[in-house]
Write a structure and sequence with these properties.
Elements (H helix, E strand, L loop, with lengths): L1 E6 L10 E6 L7 E11 L1 H9 L12 E9 L11 E4 L14 E5 L3 E3 L6 H4 L3 H11 L18 E4 L5 H12 L3 E6 L2 H10 L3 E4 L5 H8 L4 E6 L2 H11 E9 L12 H6 L3 E4 L7 H16 L13 E5 L3 H9 L5 E5 L4
Parallel strand pairs: 8-9, 8-11, 9-10, 11-12, 12-13, 14-15
Antiparallel strand pairs: 1-2, 3-4, 3-6, 3-15, 4-5, 5-7
Helix pairs in contact: 1-10, 3-4, 3-9, 6-7
The structure holds NADP nicotinamide-adenine-dinucleotide phosphate (NAP).
Length: 340
């Protein structure tokens, strides 16, 4: 038995990707095999492809995916053949991720997909929503879990509200009853952030962003979900309240951040850096539970009306999908692997 898979055998531009036939993998103890319907493409996929083989001879990219369990290894509890699932960290420390017809995964990387949730949504959750969950649950005095009421009374500033992580952060924060302000760089992106549920948007390309954020939140914001800290640190320090939290998940806009120390310690601010790859497994599992719950009630969605247009690519066009994401595609890139 064989399957088709996207692979690369050396790092480099998207031309290193090709579609090959590989033997169908069998799940070992504690693992399930998933017949994938969609594979989600994230910036991390092209970044890994260009920089490291991580000790593997051949890599199938893709942390995120959604599909149906079609084989179960020994000792697996909680998953059975036919279960609809989504993945997180599917290619972390492993050669074979989700850009393939099938993937074998340890059950820790596999989460059920609520019955009403589409495969498009399932393949869009792993990296963006779990990251957003961590960013929203690391705040001083804030909740460790999300859900209705969890962020009531708190104001969250989401930098880059039209991005994939920004979109998930807006939706999860609104589900949890926060007031959400999102920064954007154009009226089109403002409309996307509003569609995601933001209460307010501020175009950061137009003048004094801090003043306009503070006009909306005169006491300041409790939390910032930050994608571009190197260029936004002054803004963040100005708008955060005393005991506010700055959650930093990316290095868009620059590798190095210069922190005016007095401004930061004067407000007792908390800086929380985050990345999924080394995040505590218990926190990942809690995030997966909350993301499941949000998806189940329709509080996490994808599509134009949720502020995140979905762009579909064939498995054979994985290179084009990687290039689109690297080029700043607005929305979510998915590989269509099988019919829904
Ligand atoms: N730490 C982790 O575990 C983790 C997880 C997921 C993603 N990431 C990283 O996070 C980044 C975003 O991922 P993504 O999937 O959300 O990408 P995306 O969909 O391309 O979104 C990137 C967003 O960043 C915004 N942005 C860039 N500069 C900005 C600035 N100065 N102020 C405000 N917003 C700004 C862009 O908005 P404008 O075009 O309006 O500027 C865009 O909406 C990537 O670098 C990715 O590798 C890290």
């Amino acid at each position: 038995m064989h399957m088709r898979a996207v692979v690369y055998r050396e790092t480099g531009p998207s031309s290193v990707l090709s579609v090959v036939e590989r033997e169908l993998p069998e799940p070992g103890p504690g693992e399930v095999r998933i017949r994938l319907v969609r594979s989600g493409v994230n910036p991390t996929d092209w970044k890994f492809r260009t920089t490291t083989m991580n000790g593997q001879d051949e890599v199938t990219p893709g942390q995120d995916g959604a599909g149906v369990v079609d084989a179960v290894g020994p000792g697996v509890e909680g998953f059975g053949i036919g279960d609809r699932v989504w993945t997180m960290l599917a290619q972390h420390g492993r050669a074979y991720g989700t850009a393939a017809e099938q993937t074998v995964q340890p059950v820790d990387n596999v989460v059920h997909l609520p019955s009403g949730a589409s495969y498009d949504l399932g393949a869009s959750l792993g990296v963006p929503a779990v990251t957003a969950h961590r960013a929203l649950t690391c705040a001083w005095g804030g909740p460790r879990r999300l859900g209705p009421g969890a962020l009531a009374g708190r104001t969250v500033l989401v930098a880059g509200g039209a991005g994939a992580v920004g979109n998930a952060a807006i939706q999860l924060a609104r589900w949890s009853d926060a007031t959400v302000i999102a920064t954007v760089s154009s009226p089109e992106k403002a409309a996307l952030a509003m569609a995601a549920g933001a209460d307010h948007t501020v175009d950061y390309t137009e003048g004094d962003t801090a003043r306009r954020v503070l006009a909306l939140a005169p006491d300041g914001v409790d939390q910032v979900v930050e994608v571009a800290p190197a260029v936004n640190i002054d803004l963040d320090l100005e708008v955060l309240k005393v005991h506010g939290t700055l959650a930093i998940y990316a290095n868009n806009g620059g590798e190095d951040m210069t922190v005016p120390l007095r401004s930061a310690f004067s407000k007792n601010l908390r800086f929380q850096f985050l990345i999924l790859y080394t995040l505590d497994r218990g926190l990942l599992a809690a995030a997966a539970e909350d993301v499941y719950a949000a998806a189940e009630v329709g509080a996490l969605r994808v599509g134009e009306d949720a502020g995140l247009a979905v762009h579909h690519f064939a498995l054979e066009d994985a290179a084009a999908a990687h290039d689109a994401v690297e080029g700043g595609l607005v929305g979510k890139a998915l590989l269509d692997i099988a019919a829904d």
